[in-house]
Amino acid sequence: MFLKELSLKGYRNYETADVAFSEKINVFLGENAQGKTNMMESIYVLAMARSHRTANDKELIGWDQDFAKITGKVETDKTTYPLEIVLSKKGKKAKLNHLEQKKLSAYIGHLNIILFAPEDLALVKGSPSVRRKFLDMEMGQMSAIYLYHLVEYQKILKQRNAYLKQNRKNGKLDKTYVAILNEQLAAEGAEVLTGRFSFVKRLEKWARPIHSEISQGKEELTLEYASSVTLSSEKKKEQVITDLLEQYKQNERREYEQGTTLSGPHRDDVRFYVNGKNVQTYGSQGQQRTTALSVKLAEIELMKEMTGEYPVLLLDDVLSELDDDRQTHLLKSIQDKVQTFLTTTSLDGVKKELLHDPRIFTVHNGQIEMESE
Fold first, then answer.
1. Whole-prediction pTM value?
2. Those residues with Cβ within 8 angstroms of residue 264's Cβ, 6 or more apart along the chain or in another chain
3. Angle at which helices 175-214 and 237-250 cross, to 10°
């Protein structure tokens, strides 16, 4: 899978832009605050229908512009199709093959991407919410079914929390209604939990050998999906539903007092261990970075395994954060295999011999030009 073309209109500091990309490596070169990351972000928005930098879509619309429009042409092994996102003050519209998609879940997954930015090094040492978001964003691209159940879970969770909060104030609780919400939440929660557990296991399968290679065989990486519910490959969804319902029952008084749901996938975490020790707590910065890099590279292979296509890789100013060994491993891993977009202020610190025939674009003040080859 690769992105052949991209057009922008009224997007951040780009009035207009039309770019044709290489199937291999594309480099956005320029000083800071010129629009390199905006270009990278626009590709992310085209794929995910949301930004990774802001939750407010209005920020993506250029100054004095009524709307922002991103269009792109995607090519896979089997077909070619256009994607389009239009952002306005009224909301957003997503089109696949010129047809507007009523649900974003039907749109997402037609341009699979993996973003690796300096903040992704916080995947390991950041808060549990960072890792839950990572799971949901990546799994949502690979599985429309997972995305459906996640959206349903979040909808029912919001409903349940609102009811608990509201009735904490007036002291009335309709236990029959709560029981119905519990049944619905547990059913969707079980789908989310079993999906995440399976994903983490598959991710570990790819990440372990990568981590071992980067650490020259000195370290063994293991991943654990940490949940309030005990999970295993053999455990059936019906039992997970039963366990979740039991937890709601146990937490009933505390949830009523606090006005919120205290257990379930929205409270879970992923733990990383190197040689049996928790990297988040005991790992050095080098071990944390190797773990984050191993997980990102494992994602590429897992996405290929699950979808049949390699994703598009976005490296937003991340090479400057990696030492020579890790940078070499990253570039060798993606070489001639994954379409890659890379932003940097200079190629001086980049191992150019590992960039095979890059297409280089200079970015200056919202203008993008391809350097002559």
1. 0.87
2. 153, 157, 185, 189, 228, 244, 247
3. 120
